[in-house]
Input
Amino acid sequence: MTSDIFQKKQIILKRLVSTGINISPSVLDFLLTTDKPLYNLDLIIKEISFIPTFKSHLTIDTLTKIPNENIQKSLKNIKIQEKNDDQKIKNNLISSSKKTLSEEKENSILINTSNSTKLNDKKELKIKQNKKKEIPFIDVPKTLDKNHKIVNKEIIINQEIEKKINRMESSKLKLKFNSLAKDYDPEFKIKKDPSGKIFTSGDYDDFYSLTRDKFQRLSKLILKRPETQSSQEIKNIHRFNESSEISTIGFVTNIRITKKGNYFITLEDLTGTINVIVKKDIDNRENMKIIERTINDQMLFVKGIFNPGENGSNGIIFANAVSKIDIPMGIEPQKSPDPLSIVLLSDIHIGSREFEEKLWKKFISFLRGDIKNDKIRKQAEKIKYIVINGDLVDGIGVYPNQEKDLVIADIYNQYSKAAKLLSQIPEYIKIFYSSGNHEPVRNALPRPAVPKKYSQELLDMDIELLGNPCYIQTHKVDTLIYHGDSLIDLNFLIPGLDNTRSVDTMKELLICRHLAPSFGSKTQIAPISKDWLVIDDIPQIFHTGHIHINDYGTYRGVKLINSGCFQSQTDFMKSFGIEPTPGIIPIIELDSLNYFELDLKAFN
Output
């Protein structure tokens, strides 16, 4: 038994103990003979739950009832082997039954040699006379222990292996790395990717089409809320000629504070505009909190009293309730049935003087299990996917005087270096690479994937090249990938937000269900017919970068992760007051959605 098989046997037994299932030795041996024992075990556990007669003991007979072609094919091979083994047993039985008396006599002498000083000849003769004849069922290889007793040779071998493994663990020697993720095939879907679907002429009609699509899609989302069912179009509200209780939805086109401290808002839908007053008083405290974090181009639901205007004026709504779209509470997040993990990276900036290549080497050592920390090794064993959320390379001419910060001043050479570094990642790990604002693509959102002329080496490595934002599913878990260009905009526009706590800003994006809600700020948005920045579907993981500061949080079941960077501080970052946190690696376990943070600076 090799240490590799011994480790896999331990993993299998631990997993069965946790599920309350007993296993026969023959089934355990069967699993270890298959190509993917851990994968097959998960498959078997899943299938036996549908067998009504199954209690808790897993046998070969139970396996024959599983309707899986691969399992049954493997069983057929094992049955042929068992048939051959049975024939060997019969042959051994015949051979053993023909043992001569002289052979038994030799065995008796062998047993009594150790006690020759204590037994006299008479006692020896008595032992020989009283010794019963036994015909062994199988001719198992035997040897002597230190007391000269006959023992099973296989037991001695197994004990020696266990002792060796224990000595290795106690002395903290490096064990052979056995990846659990290697036993699983990649299982993923690209659910949304703007690449090849974002053409525009840039004229007025394109801007109008974008705004109209944004309104229609966000209004569908907000109208799912029960309190919004009575909403009316703005043009119909203006037809009232007396005070009435009404409700409506619309985009915020103007928001300001009056001299009395009230908020004055203008809403717009596809039929017209209307003014809204949100009074600053005790009864309106919750509404005020919402309005304080409201900016232009967000969708808002308003309920209140409409007072029609006099002498041809448009009238005004005095709001007593306001709300945004938000995501529902109590949604049970999807989880993977498989014990795998996903690593979230961004802002590696290969080609920059500040690229932390030493930290990257530590990251590769972690992925390959070349570390002594057992807890960290166990995390590495489960990693099946890596997402690179933009700014893999530093690019050329992205910001003023960037050339002073470059050690690789050619974009093609930056990608050659990137391919070399990414090739160090184990082949069984699937990599997704989404474009950021330093990639050689257009800066306006949404962005296409990096063109082949730059990234052919990455494509040859089977890396999935995606646009930004995009939406992927890995082993049933959905991840929204957005580089995060608008995060800095929101941090300037909304009081209480700052770059050190990007998850608070990400939460605001989920509340308004849009990745760049304010049009016309520093974040460039391309005028196209479809708004790719609307958050239609609720992910289990929301992943951003761009800020270069690692952060983690949860909002209504959604895991919020900003993945930090692999670049130390540049002068350009200093101008924004950003102090980066390079080398902190976020890992999400897909089967539990638990978060694990690896600080590469913390180990050698």
